């Protein structure tokens, strides 16, 4: 895992940090919440991989917005149909990280008008169901792409399709960086631009949605058809538990509404 790539530099030369929202949980009435846990995947093994550089910049921002991050290093990951892949250490690592996470960031280069095989392989190793556990269902997802040429949205659109198939909550905003080779300094940091501003928007939004779904994701993806198949009735004694976090959000919203009406 490339978990140390962002630890030494939390300066943001491309941003106006005085405009950062670093108190997202508090603004949602969720003070005291632990950091949201975000897994980031990138789609190129090149030495100067722009999808990796964009993911590293995203991780720095997420940490600043109150998240805990892990970046998966896909080097050495086998093909999804290789023999006995479930026992491969890289596959186990990826699955464990997904189970640890509450949200994902997927970033792919656009290659031949589509996502790369590497990013697809990582997603293919994440089963919909594994021993009754669902390593992606109910998690939030932010999608990003880098292009060597002009602006395109092919990869982010395909990543959205994959996210829907994996039963994830893909946030509305997204990032697509055109001519990525022009957008990064030699040291790997991103230059100031509208692309960078959009990246900040996306990461801020991901933290917000992940916090809002915390403790509710399992209920939101619960399906009638599955309850019928499992002969599992809803039980008011267990399924209508009052969530103190939900009450805090309700109280905060009511206070905001009263203030706006004054």
Automatic annotation (TrEMBL):
One of its GO terms (molecular function) is oxidoreductase activity, acting on NAD(P)H, quinone or similar compound as acceptor. Signal peptide: none annotated. Its cofactor is FMN. SUPFAM superfamilies: Flavoproteins. It comes from the Bacteria. InterPro entries: Arsenate-R_ArsH, Flavoprotein-like_sf, FMN_Rdtase-like_dom. Residues 37-181 form the NADPH-dependent FMN reductase-like domain. Residues 251-262 have a biased composition (Basic and acidic residues). Keywords: Flavoprotein, FMN, NADP, Nucleotide-binding, Oxidoreductase. Residues 239-262 are annotated as: Disordered. Homotetramer. Belongs to the ArsH family. This is NADPH-dependent FMN reductase ArsH. It comes from Paraburkholderia graminis (strain ATCC 700544 / DSM 17151 / LMG 18924 / NCIMB 13744 / C4D1M). The lineage of its organism: Bacteria, Pseudomonadati, Pseudomonadota, Betaproteobacteria, Burkholderiales.
